[in-house]
Amino acid sequence: MWNWLVSALGSEATVVLFDGSPFHPQPSALFDMADELGVTLFGVSAKYIDACAKAGLKPIETHKLSTLKTICSTGSTLIPESFEYVYQNIKRDVHLQSMSGGTDLCGCLVAGDPTGPVNKGKYRRLL
Length: 127
Description:
three-stranded antiparallel sheet, Rossmann fold, alpha/beta, 34% helix
């Protein structure tokens, strides 16, 4: 994903990185940071979303996340239960995309499509 970071900087976007355990110093650490810094695109792994669900996190009740527009998930396919978790416990009006690709091609093979519906457990579009 480093090439996405470089292209974001080239587009004059601000990049926010987190080094360490996403559950330290507390389980809500990434959501705290996203709220505080006004993150618009939140990129995480499918495993992170699953871990948040298993930990019982409900950022929808504890965080504003008013600037958050998109959540991108990669690393493995996002299971249908994780789609439900995001919309019920993180944010209802967010574009959620499960994507897959590789650094060798500097992009995604499949990703989300903000102009169409989000389908639980599926990639949206072959690119």
